[in-house]
Amino acid sequence: MIHDAQMDYYGTRLATCSSDRSVKIFDVRNGGQILIADLRGHEGPVWQVAWAHPMYGNILASCSYDRKVIIWREENGTWEKSHEHAGHDSSVNSVCWAPHDYGLILACGSSDGAISLLTYTGEGQWEVKKINNAHTIGCNAVSWAPAVIPGSLIDQPSGQKPNYIKKFASGGCDNLIKLWKEEEDGQWKEEQKLEAHSDWVRDVAWAPSIGLPTSTIASCSQDGRVFIWTCDDASGNTWSPKLLHKFNDVVWHVSWSITANILAVSGGDNKVTLWKESVDGQWVCISDVNKGQGSVSASVTEGQQNEQ
Amino acid sequence: MEKMSRVTTALGGSVLTGRTMHCHLDAPANAISVCRDAAQVVVAGRSIFKIYAIEEEQFVEKLNLRVGRKPSLNLSCADVVWHQMDENLLATAATNGVVVTWNLGRPSRNKQDQLFTEHKRTVNKVCFHPTEAHVLLSGSQDGFMKCFDLRRKDSVSTFSGQSESVRDVQFSIRDYFTFASTFENGNVQLWDIRRPDRCERMFTAHNGPVFCCDWHPEDRGWLATGGRDKMVKVWDMTTHRAKEMHCVQTIASVARVKWRPECRHHLATCSMMVDHNIYVWDVRRPFVPAAMFEEHRDVTTGIAWRHPHDPSFLLSGSKDSSLCQHLFRDASQPVERANPEGLCYGLFGDLAFAAKESLVAAESGRKPYTGDRRHPIFFKRKLDPAEPFAGLASSALSVFETEPGGGAMRWFVDTAERYALAGRPLAELCDHNAKVARELGRNQVAQTWTMLRTIYCSPGLLPTANLSHSVGKGGSCGLQLMNSFNLKDMAPGLGSETRLDRSKGDARSDTVLLDSSATLITNEDNEETEGSDVPADYLLGDVEGEDDELYLLDPEHTHPEEPECVLPQEAFPLRHEIVDTPPGPEHLQDKADSPHVSGSEADVASLAPVDSSFSLLSVSHALYDSRLPPDFFSVLVRDMLHFYAEQGDVQMAVSVLIVLGERVRKDIDEQTQEHWYTSYIDLLQRFRLWNVSNEVVKLSTSRAVSCLNQASTTLHVNCSHCKRPMSSRGWVCDRCHRCASMCAVCHHVVKGLFVWCQGCSHGGHLQHIMKWLEGSSHCPAGCGHLCEYS
Question: What UniProt keywords apply to this chain's record, in alphabetical order (chain A) (predicted)?
Fold first, then answer.
């Protein structure tokens, strides 16, 4: 069973991960799907994969039920394990790379309730920071905020690294979405707690900021609801939820298009729907792909078949 | 962790009831075994050997079998087994190689019955025959298995595995004479109890030691084995060669495996190290456990289902000195947590979607979904042949491609590549971009460009372009047709953008006004406008929609339509000046021109000659200043840019920003501009449009953006005297304390242009060197080098 599929930065490669412990990379250029790598190294189902920004090379992170996070790197056409992080006490459910402006930073959310942040410090070394008890019972998803620089860029002396405020969102089994912010001393602090879901939060997706003055987060949950959270004020403290839709089944994924105006939602009813905000601020479904046709008969046969 | 659910199961005569519970033992347990009445459990370990009664709410210690004055090694148990036919009979395997049987029916405190001291090393496993009351089997570290008849004092037969050590022995449940044994070298052997000379069958089951095995309670040929290679394998032993049916991958070496009663495909495992949890697997789903019990804090050493026909109660003993009863209902279910779907929005607007195949396959014959008409997004589905999964929990991976014209990002790439952002007069840029947008079917954007052109450019050129049209009558007719055609095309785009239309309307109204005031020429297009002599109607009314579009369309249409049209040569220098003027006067200029050019930057053919607009400026000022403040349009344009940016089309925002340059820059705050620029550049780079991205960086006015191009470019300067790297300080070399760039002719420090000979590295002011070299070909510094100046 495939648990996640991610396209790389240029949209030319697709990485999938699956229960059979494998991570596969496909070339999807020109409409084809050619398997170019099969990465073996996990000892349990692999839940999620994430591509790093190409300025750091071809780097893929994967997280698994075996409590490990593996960072893979392609060198001279071959993929190899470059780092293994085994700092969690339970299944690692989600990985997400920070915006490239921050350097190579990976956030990992685990069923042990903790979120760990791996920062590349050069020469194959990774520094680990851990937020313990981020979500009770477990953390299901992490998503970084796009890189935003406080104040005007103009004031920054050129050549000096601008002082970014790093933020990310996480969703967990405590039905909450939490926003985390890095303090000046490098410690991560809970900034916001967004409460609206009535069951486990399955996925959070911070919208890419393409010319938008507002910050937007999409979240979906076991309770079948998808919320769009927006924050208009500069301080980032007041977030207001808007219910996108209530589905009849678990919603597993939300994914933004790169221009952040279309949201793809996939749910337990085996549908992918695309949503767009209309001029009057309402979210409307503009298209759906129904995967559930004939699902009734399919589910009957399901139990009798064998998996390879 | 305390879960209070309770399960009661009726099994024939007896009733099982209980809840998840645990009790503390005095010492770590090595093995447990359940009495056949399912009401008692025996726990054995290095320093513990006790029987507990399983009551509804708790475990109650019933009997301590460790009696006697001095602790004997015979009591250090590696394994324990309770006879499934005789409630009073137990056997233990001691770490010193002794096999002990216990009779609970003995009246004395010491229940020890028989002692077999035949094994040389630790006995790993003891096993009673399932149906024969007196037959006991043992497997030891010394590599031998022994079969005992409890009625005799010593073993009946000895089986040699020809191997290092036996880890497990299990009588087959169905075949009376058969038992299986597993070995440290990875082999599994099948024996006939009557044939001690050699095993019936042997095969290598695992890579590394096989720690355990278990016969399926119902399926006669099925044997599950677990090994250090972290795998549980299910073998079909009925066939000629043992056939691997299933293989479950766990995350740690498998210490125990037990089939779950009444569930054909379920088995429970616990691990030897690292992992303290107990898992229940569905062997058909080999990667994710069906259930997980997380109660233990140390390695689980013994697991046993409470009753051979009840699937809900599992008992376990652990190194953490606790005994647990687990309820299947209380188990956490990792499968439920597992995400069955993967979804990713691709760069080009395509979607990758992975879902359960059973659900997908059923509809593979379907036609692509057609979206609703206003937002036509189509999907093409392609099944990936490279995913060889089938059945219960497999997924299909599909990539949906958006077809052209839908949500695909192809337009973005095309637009980015074809837009002209600089290097030509504003009007041409606008026209060009409008044309590009139109060709890509983005009418709204095209219209915006056209509008920008009309707002910001001197309309002076348009009539000239139209001149050729009006000369021939056919020309104006063709134009007319073109307009109506385009209008139809544009309708949907307009609908979604009311605010822009409004602003357009406002912008246009004054042109209309001009038209009506100067209706020198009759034209079908103008008839509507002519109808109204009151300009106020147009300024306030909503009617302008249609004719606005007509006006808007025309200028840019005439232009690309007539590439051969001759533009007056003077127009170019004139326009260049305009490009640099601030928006205020310029758009006045626009007005100023209009009346003289018979008021039509629209499609009205003009016979009047084009005049230089400068002389007219003062007139227009007087006439129109009161009506239209200079920054009237800037606000609209700013709103328009924000609108596009919010729509996700930051490309448009940035392109307009660059093309219009100073005209709008001051109206939009720096940070927003910068944000647009960086967003757009980032997007361009994702699409690998390096050239465009570089152009944007170059053309951007924001310092933070334009300095992007200077990033990671280093300039190394060496001192011309000591040839060592200069510090960043400037003119003076740190090491030799001399000014680095002295003119060899005048011996002053050269500031500005420094020319030097690449051969001897001497040089100086350009003028001086040039002069010097006119007279001499030798280096002015006197180094003797023959310098060349080219």
Answer: Lysosome, mRNA transport, Nuclear pore complex, Nucleus, Protein transport, Repeat, Translocation, Transport, WD repeat
- Interface check for B177 against chain A (CB to CB < 8 A): the answer is no
Please tell me if residue B64 touches chain A, with a CB cutoff of 8 Å: no
User: What is the model's pLDDT at position B575?
Assistant: 39
Contact across the interface for A257 and B407, Cβ inside 8 Å? yes
The pair of structure tokens assigned to A292 is 């559930």
Chain A residues within 8 A of B1 when measuring between CB atoms: none
The SS3 call for residue B627 is coil
Q: Of A116, A100, A99, whose CA–CA distance to A108 is shortest?
A: A116
Q: Which residues pair with A215 in a beta bridge?
A: A231
Which chain A residues are within 8 Å of B647, Cβ to Cβ? 261
A211, B676: Cβ pair inside 8 Å? yes
Long-range CB contacts (< 8 A, 24+ apart) of B719-726?
Answer: B720/B756, B720/B761, B720/B762
pLDDT band at B604 (very low <50, low <70, confident <90, very high): very low
Sort out which chain A residues have CB atoms less than 8 A from B366's CB and list them: 293
Could you tell me the two tokens for B600?
């039509």
Extract the runs of DSSP E, i.e. beta strands, from B104-215. 112-116, 123-128, 135-140, 144-149, 155-160, 166-171, 178-183, 187-192, 201-204, 210-215
Rounded to whole angstroms, how far apart are CA atoms B35 and B596? 111
How high is the mean pLDDT of chain B? Answer: 70
pTM for the complete prediction?
A: 0.64
pLDDT at B317: 92
Q: What angle do CA A212, A215, A221 make, to 5 degrees?
A: 130
- For CA atoms B740, B745, B748, B749, the dihedral sign is negative
CA dihedral A73, A74, A79, A85 (to 10 degrees): 0
Q: What angle, 0 to 180 degrees and rounded to 10, lies between the N-to-C axes of helices B650-660 and B670-686?
A: 120
Task: Kindly report which listed range (A24-33, A114-123, B242-251, B313-322) carries the lowest average pLDDT score.
Answer: A24-33
Structure token digits, residue B224: 């599950």
Q: What is the DSSP letter of A4?
A: E
B281-308 per-position pLDDT tens digit:
888 877 778 888 988 889 999 999 988 8
Question: What single-letter DSSP state applies at residue A147?
Answer: P
3-state secondary structure B545-565: HHHHHHHHHHHHHHHHHCCCC
Q: DSSP code of B133?
A: T
pLDDT tens for each residue of A9-29: 887 888 888 888 889 998 877
Length of chain B: 790
Residues A69-86: tens digit of each pLDDT: 999 999 888 899 999 998
Q: Which residues contact A209 (CB under 8 A, 6 or more apart)?
A: A146, A148, A215, A260, B675, B679
Is residue B354 predicted with pLDDT exceeding 80? Answer: no
User: Using a CB-CB distance cutoff of 8 angstroms, which residues of chain B are in contact with residue A210?
Assistant: 645, 648, 650, 679, 683
Contacts of B355 (CB under 8 A, 6+ apart): A2, A266, A270, A291, B340, B341, B342, B395, B396
Please work out, in degrees rounded to the nearest 5, the angle formed at the alpha carbon of residue B13 by the alpha carbons of B173 and B176. Answer: 15
Using CA atoms, how far apart are residues B223 and B553, in angstroms rounded to an integer? 80
Residue B740, pLDDT score: 64
State the residue for tokens 């973005």: B412
Cβ atoms of A147 and A101 within 8 Å: the answer is yes
User: Is A289's CB within 8 Å of B249's CB?
Assistant: no
Q: What is the DSSP letter of B294?
A: -
Set of chain B residues whose Cβ sits within 8 Å of the Cβ of A3? 338-340, 342, 354
Please answer yes or no on whether A305 and B392 come within 8 Å at the CB atom: yes
Could you report the per-residue pLDDT of B373-421, keeping only the tens digit for each? 232 233 333 333 333 333 344 566 666 655 444 445 677 788 888 888 8
DSSP state of B629: -
**From the list A2, A33, A298, which residue is nearest B359 (CB)?**
A298
Contact B353 A5 (CB under 8 A): yes
Tell me, yes or no, if B361 comes closer than 8 A to chain A by beta carbon.
yes
